[in-house]
Amino acid sequence: MPAPRSPRRLALLVVLPLTALLGACGGGDGGEGGGGGGAGAAPTADAAPTGPREIDTPDCVPDDARAVATGPEDEPVVVVTLGDGANGLVFAPQSGDTFCEWVPTLEAYAAQGYTVASFAWSGDAAASLRSAVDVLLAEDVDAYALVGSSVGGAMSAALADDLDPAPAGVLALSPGRVSDAGSAASADSAYTGPLLVIGSAADNATAARAVARADDPSTYLEVPGGAHGLALFATDSGPLVEQRMAEFLGGLFAG
Asked: Which residue ranges are recorded for the region named Disordered (predicted)?
């Protein structure tokens, strides 16, 4: 189990009301496609402030969660964190969705001793994921892994070889082969760290297999049916998916 650590040292600015920054949680998922929040417009330049600033805790997350907004004031990235462990996990949502969809998983892994983070997509999907990583790292975690569903999984795989520090591992549920950050296919990535891709046989399995490594069967788990992304948890294969996730993520930080 991850070890506890000293109090976080995240520098926060003024408290802002969440309603001014984020609409209601929810939305559909784009499946194979690219953008994180369904918005393709470039973020507005010179729209201060840019640093992380504390905001009201969203209604969908536990009361002891922390929430910040970072980036341009007119289109910030909202990031929530929970837990107080030395090892961190960033959970990337599906397209059009937010941290709200990951709340049960965030609570479960925080209870196991991790510091966990998730976010709401802005118009710049790659910047959204990078911002969540930066916020998590500012909480003094020693190492972190990326976990993403659908577009979130594709973005995690596509950016894994470009993040500094690099993630300790990447876990993708039903990822598309492409993302706004470029190709998520393992053949196009310089990332060589631990990887696990989980997909359904009847849900664009070709794309999920491309994100896994063809020369390493251990990087891919395929389950029956056509469930996509987080819907995998609600299928008969849900317990297996959760077990493999826990084993993979726990193994990243063992020792």
From this structure: 32-56
Residue 30 within any structural domain of the chain? no
Query: How many structural domains comprise the chain?
Result: 1
Helix (H, G, I), strand (E, B) or coil at 133: helix
In a domain, 59, yes or no: yes
Inside any domain, residue 31: no
Q: ∠ at Cα 13 (102, 58), nearest 5°?
A: 25
Question: Per the omega criterion (within 30 degrees of 0), is the bond before 224 cis?
Answer: no
| 203 vs 200: CA distance, rounded Å | 5
Cα–Cα distance measured from residue 65 to residue 106, given in angstroms and rounded to the nearest whole number: 10
CATH number at residue 135: 3.40.50.1820
DSSP assignments along 201-233, one per residue: TTS-HHHHHHHS-TT-GGGEEEESS---GGGGG
Q: pTM for this structure?
A: 0.85
Please report whether residue 149 resides in a domain.
yes
pLDDT 10s digits, 32-60: 444 444 433 444 445 666 789 999 999 99
pLDDT digits (tens, 9 = 90+) for 2-12: 544 444 434 33
Residue-range definition of the domain harbouring residue 220: 42-252
Assess contact for 154 and 160: CB atoms under 8 A.
no
CA angle 184-99-227, nearest 5°? Answer: 60
SS3 77: strand
Main-chain dihedrals φ then ψ at residue 119, nearest 5 degrees: -155, 170
- If you ran DSSP here, which 8-state letter would residue 80 be given? E
Q: Three-class SS of residue 61? A: coil
CA angle, 92 then 98 then 100, to 5°:
105
Q: What is the distance between the alpha carbons of residues 169 and 29, in angstroms, rounded to a whole number?
A: 24
